[in-house]
Amino acid sequence: MRAIVEVTNLAVAFPDPAAGWRRVVDGVTLEVAEGEAMGVVGESGCGKTLTGLAVVGLVPEPGRVVGGSVRLDGEDVLAADERRLCALRGGVAGFIFQEPAQALNPVKSVASQVTEAARLHGNAPASRTSRLAASLLAEVGLEDLDRVAHSYPHQLSGGQRQRVLLAAALAAGPRLLIADEPTSALDTVSQVKMVELLQTLHETRRLSLLFVSHDLALVGRVVGRITVLYAGETVEVAGRDALFRAPLHPYTQALLATRPAEADGAPRRFPTVPGRVPAAREWGAGCRFAPRCPRAFDRCRRARPGLTELPDSRKVRCFLQGDAEEANG
Amino acid sequence: MVEGRAPAILAARGVSRRYPRRDGGAGRAGAAVIALDAVSFGLHRGEIVGVVGRSGAGKSTLARVLLGLEVPDEGEVLYAGRPLREMTTREMQRMRRSVQVVFQDPHSSLDPRQSIGSILAEPLAVHGVVPPKRRRERSLELLASVELPAEGDLLGRMPRELSGGERQRVAIARALACSPDALILDEPVSALDASVRGQILNLLLDLRRRTGMAMMVIAHDVRLVGHLCERVAVVAGGRIVEEGAPAEVLGRPADAATAELLAAARWLETVPPAGARPAGGEPGG
After folding, report:
1. Contacts across the A-B interface (CB distance below 8 Å)
2. Are the C-beta atoms of residues B74 and B14 closer than 8 Å to each other?
3. Could you tell me the strand order of the sheet in which B32-43 lies?
């Protein structure tokens, strides 16, 4: 199947007074096939957001991609100039963020923001823009369209704002939607609705999805495959069902164990992953998960495992998987 | 929980709160959003109560009214049986010390320019509960009480150097500085990773066991309060629509708002069965 996103061994670095350039992402490999829904999961600080931004050439200053390759719809994002990147953003890949209040312009009406993307890409004549905005706002499930279209972001609820942002992201007809924690600022009822909406868009528009979230179970409701990131690198890639049934990496196993228990009201302690994600300056020579890993042995502390390909397009970065090799560099 | 015993630490009696409508459009004078509609609620010594509801249901307004940060349009708030509006400045100070609050996002509730040490020392100085010479020692005790390393090194760090979970522990430590009788926690874990949430919730369980402090935990996710609390109040449309033991309220929801929250929580926690809605499918070939 043709890939719409191909990220291989990505490294992103930021200037660090102590170390010149410090890699904060180092070893992310991620592939999204055309029409596929891929989840990217990991705790805060694992590199999920930077990876999503790198796909559309938006690594924030003063950060820089210092290694690996990024291809979007076959095009080399790292070599593309700003004009090409502008065409790719919106036209090929739309983007929605965790906090829609910050992504929307507070002094522009909803309708004008939704049509802006379409105008930028020259797809809609001026006479059609308001009709286009209305149909997009309806497609993302907003009600009371006339009022919403003439509202400003502060007059809407969080869930409505996220839908407006989504409508704007779809205005230029992208083939890929990158959704970075699109539900984290919403209450549980709105979370369900947003996830169902993404599912619907994925199916009706044949929209490829890159769904970034710290919540493995939630991502599992939408995507067919999942890429698990830990401390700036890809540690596991698997089909959703295989991943939930038989996670191979100890980090994936730990994440699955922290899913909240049933809401039955019985008092009990909450499951956790002991420890925390190490900061980039704390990465050692060994496996970055070793300090938290219940199954770590000598080799894990000495050498860093490479990302090993397994049957069924699975990948895992762990010495416990028989023929795992060491990462070079 | 039973009326007629010692008065509740905090109580709302028939409290209503309205905000002027700001949806632009009509902007007619008099039109108002009803944030709280004749709500009665009590937080009693030593109990842990969950307040759940959707965004905009009125949960945070209830907390702000109980804390005296907002004055209700109708009804009355009482601290230890005494109406807030009759309290003297000194009584108000005492209440401010004995009722503490922890907000959702430790990123914005901790001053980014203050070191952890000065964040923790500030309430000790403001309320004069610990002499200056003992403040450092007390700060280290506070770090230990929230299971952070009780080292001088951490006191010198800035909030941005800590993870989200560590920052929320600092916010809780600051709330504990004056040994309060009650803690109001407004969405204490919703800005945190799923993996870190459990750590903070377990810390709250431990703190309550150790100190017997009363807690009011506000959340939109019923999964959290179900396992944490002895009593749950469900808020919708500015009213408490249902209240009782979690097993009862969550086991046999009587109100549509409760049922909606439960259905969402169940949906979110359920791993879809293998093969269900293979969105995009596995790449097999």
Report:
1. 186
2. yes
3. B32-43, B10-20, B74-79, B82-83
Query: Is residue B4 a part of any domain in this protein?
Result: no
Chain B hits for A18, CB-CB cut-off 8 Å, are none
Phi first, then psi: what are they for B63, rounded to 5°? -60, -45
Question: Considering CB atoms only, which of A154, A217, A223 is closest to B280?
Answer: A223
Choose, out of A214, A270, A309, the residue to mutate when testing the contact with B (most B CBs < 10 Å).
A270
Model confidence at A22, pLDDT cuts 50, 70, 90, reads: very high
Provide the whole-model pTM: 0.90
Q: Scanning the structure block, which residue is given the tokens 């610990």?
A: B130
Q: What's B97's domain CATH number? A: 3.40.50.300
Phi, psi of A180 (to 5 degrees): -100, 105
In a domain? residue B195 = yes
Structural domain boundaries enclosing B190:
10-20+33-112+183-267
Mean pLDDT of B166-189: 95
Q: Which long-range contacts (CB under 8 A, 24 or more apart) does A293-296 make?
A: A293/A250, A293/A251, A294/A250, A295/A250, A295/A320
What number of other Cβ atoms are within 10 A of residue A119's Cβ? 16
Place B158 in a pLDDT band, splitting at 50, 70 and 90: very high
Whether residue B146 is contained in a domain is answered as no
Provide the shortest C-alpha distance from residue A207 to chain B (in Å). Answer: 9
Nearest residue of chain A to residue B252 (CA atoms): A264
Window A:257-286, CB contacts with B under 8 Å:
258-273, 276-277
pLDDT at A172 (0 to 100): 86
Domains and CATH numbers, chain A: 3-92+175-259+271-316 (3.40.50.300), 109-173 (no CATH)
Residue B133, domain member (yes or no): no
Report how many domains make up chain B.
Answer: 1
* For residue B284, pLDDT beyond 60: no
pLDDT digits (tens, 9 = 90+) for A40-73: 999 988 999 999 999 999 999 999 999 999 999 9
pLDDT one-digit tens code per residue, A198-222: 999 999 999 999 999 999 989 999 9
- pLDDT of B234 > 50? The answer is yes
